[in-house]
Amino acid sequence: MRSNKDFNVLNDYFMRYMFAAKGHEHILKNLINSVRIDANQEPFESIEVLNSFNLKENINDKESIADVKGKTKSGETILIEIQRIGNQSFIYRSLYYWAKNYSTNLKSKNIYSDLTPVISINILDFNLIKDIDKAHSCYFIKELETNHILTNHLEIHFLELKKFKNDNSLYEELSDWFNFLSSRDKLEDIMKVLVKKNPIMKEVYDEYYKFVNSNDLYNGYSDYERDYFNILMLNEERIKGIEEGKKEQQISIARNLKKSGIDIKIISENTGLSIEEIKKL
Questions:
Q1: In terms of pLDDT, which residue wins out, 252 or 103?
Q2: How far apart are CA 260 and CA 240, in angstroms?
Q3: How many CA atoms, within 13 angstroms, populate the side-chain half-sphere of residue 197?
Q4: Staple partner for 110: which of 36, 47, 114, 174, CB 3.0–4.6 Å?
Q5: pLDDT tens digits along 46-71
Q6: What pLDDT, on the 0 to 100 scale, is given for residue 63?
Q7: Are 141 and 158 spatial neighbours (Cβ–Cβ below 8 Å)?
Q8: What pLDDT does residue 184 have?
Q9: Which long-range contacts does 93-102 make (Cβ < 8 Å, 24+ apart)?
């Protein structure tokens, strides 16, 4: 058994494995239903994963790692996104992804009434909603004075992990998920408590053990953790370059990132240099 004191459960690769691997549909359903019940919404009978995790496809293909996307028996689309860093602009990003998925539900020959609900669940490791201390917030389209819900087609949830307090304000099973997702360097201690009272957490812990003891899976985790910190460095250097306003700084940043093997398109997007300029470095 590896020593995994610093294992981060929010790692993209691990999260995709936990919620989208074949046979894990009931784990994903438990998370979704816990969120729904906490927001006084009806739970779903079944969830089909639309972008399943496949080790052979994912091990050397970073482009195939994406947010988890599912479909219910009654036709709702479920989006799960995990975001470790961010700011207020994530609100607009969340709306954009919701709108993009909502519009793709309408085929060319369909009528508008054929559109189906899209439910977005965002797991965030940063504070997003100002002036609200709730760890779980849920948004619908409502009439301002009466609170009448216009439609159930838009439903966006934010799970803000840093606002979580281990109290009775959340539905118990959602509280357990918050505990797991917020575990950081206390995973082992937290899971010892959770597995005794929640059967799904016993399965989650078992899958964690399988994951960390598989060389292929753990290597995927390590690669994504490395890339995460590369992106952090990229963002920090980009902000520094913008503040200094120096072209030379952007070129220096791009050159160093290119040597690190980061994709040229990503370097271009985050430094402001053109792909042609970066290729010449």
A1: 103
A2: 19
A3: 11
A4: 114
A5: 999 998 887 655 545 544 445 899 99
A6: 45
A7: no
A8: 80
A9: 94/120, 94/122, 94/156, 94/158, 95/156, 97/67, 98/154, 98/156, 101/69, 101/77, 102/77, 102/153, 102/154
pLDDT of residue 271: 75
The residue behind tokens 């409502």 is 142
Kindly give the residue spans of alpha helices, DSSP state H, lying in 48-89.
55-58
Taking alpha carbons only, the member of 43, 35, 238 closest to residue 120 is 35
How far apart CA 273 and CA 245 sit, in angstroms, is 13
Give the full edge-to-edge strand order of the sheet including 77-83: 47-49, 68-72, 77-83, 118-124, 149-160, 136-142
Q: Is 84 exposed, middle or buried (0-12, 13-18, 19+ CB in 10 A)?
A: middle
Cα diameter, the chain: 60
Give the Cα separation of 56 and 43 in Å (integer).
Answer: 33
Q: pLDDT, tens digit, for every residue of 107-150? A: 766 788 889 999 999 999 999 998 899 999 999 999 999 999 99
Six token digits for residue 219: 């290597």
**Angle 228-97-180 from CA coordinates, rounded to 5°:** 50
CA pair distance 252, 257, nearest whole angstrom:
9
Flag whether pLDDT at 216 surpasses 70. yes
pLDDT value, residue 64:
44
